[in-house]
Write a structure and sequence with these properties.
Blueprint: E1 2-4, H1 20-32, E2 37-40, H2 44-47, H3 56-71, E3 75-81, E4 84-85, E5 88-89, H4 107-124, E6 130-136, H5 150-167, E7 172-174, H6 180-183, H7 191-196, E8 201-205, H8 220-223, H9 225-236, E9 244-249, H10 261-270, E10 278-283, H11 314-325, E11 336-339, H12 361-370, E12 376-379
Helix pairs in contact: 1-3, 4-5, 10-11
Length: 383
Amino acid sequence: MGANYVPSTSWFYSWLDLDLDDVRRDLDDLAELGLDHIRVFPIWPWIQPNRSHIRPRAMDDVASVLDLAHERGLAVCLDLVQGHLSSFDFLPSWILTWHSRSLFTDDTVRAGLRDYVRTMCRTLGAHPALFAITTGNELNNLWPSNETSPSESLAWAQDLVGIVAEEVPQVAALHSLFSAAWTDPGHPFTPVEAARVGDWTSVHSWIFNGPTGIAAYDDEICLSWADYLVQLAVASADDPHRPVWLQEVGAPGPEVPAEQAGEFARAVLARVLDEPRLVGVTWWSSHDVSRDLVDFPEREYDLGLFTTDHRPKPVAAVLAELVAQGAPNAVERTRCVDIPLSVTHLDEQNDARAALAAGSAWHRSWVQERREGPVGVRFVPSV
């Protein structure tokens, strides 16, 4: 059980003038809850502002945060391409303006990214805090401003994950996509990429991506959305034992009333924690965003376990309670809803992903079964 680390002071802009005392206090908050890991997001264009220049000082700052996490018993997943964070995109100038070219398809950009990923891995990969390195955060949010196709995005992911696996074989090499890969027709990032690239499948569960359009936050449709996505991830893998990480889950407002966030978290996690392939849950996020910062979507300000002045919120108490209880006994999903689709055909050319989206007939059928207890998903293509 861990948290996506959002600095309490100056959000991710804090990387521009890192104050290690601020980081210490933030990480103390999380360690005191009993959490065992964090996910860390350095900002790519501030590390590699020019294609041929990777800033040593920026690398040192990341290493310092890893040191502080390790001192507090917090393992670290390091995300590389930021990329996309809390509705903002961060891309270096050498792929923008008159250089404009796609992150996913341009050979020059790909070469620069390979250098960046290899340098990060070689410089930081031996750090004892690291348990995983992820290509980036919700990279499919960088489309359509960066053109790509299913075959091109798959090749991109395989390329960068392969570098991580080669350079740092002792940690999990991961690729991070949000739920559109499973649910949005025409989306050029597919379940094959999400569930078959890298060592684990990561799941990002946000009820505003469909469920709250058809049901209230406390309806089973919303409470089981994380579990549904985890079951889609399990069903999409070609290895039945492939680990799944619920890498982002939160209680977003205004969909979830602030006073109900703790109970929402308890209900959501109760439905997923006994999944045998689940390796971890990472709450979004560690700390709120200061109201002094402008232009964020309203929901982004109050997603933290802690306020910006380090007061724990009700959801923090729920996570601490779950940590104290320990992991529940794993329960294999012997009941499944059969869906007559082939995972390898869920792409632009033969796109049936609308059948998996929130509110679809198959999703509603699964939810109805879920009301009676744990249930899985099984793809059973007819051909």
